[in-house]
Fold PQ-loop repeat-containing protein.
Amino acid sequence: MTLSEASLLGFTAFSGLRLVSYLPQIYKVVRDRNGASAISYATWALWTGCHLSTGLYAIINLSDLLLGAASVLYALCCLAVIALTAAKRRRVPVVLASVDMEAGAASSPIRLDHVGRERAYAVRHGSNP
């Protein structure tokens, strides 16, 4: 096996693993009940930009359609994570903690309902608005 063939084999193997590695993240975002709070938009947007720029570079400068297509596919997976996260965060109410200024400790959590609608108000758990 030549060095060129070995590098192609390595690229193909790790590209396949990379593609499969997006699936558990997408699954976790879909199943998350807390608005996918562990997902960073900035990180996933950076990865999306890196993949798109790699794809464009491969197609325009290297005439490598395979690398270009693989990079665009990775970018689409990143966009899927971003879109699913955004959808999750729109559906989950924001949870804040009230702070007792004298004690310096958080008391009971406050949930904001109807955020982005006509009105927004805070509701303490166990009380009616």
Remarks:
- The two ends are 71 Å apart (CA to CA).
- Confidence is low (pLDDT under 50) at residues 96-101, 110-125.
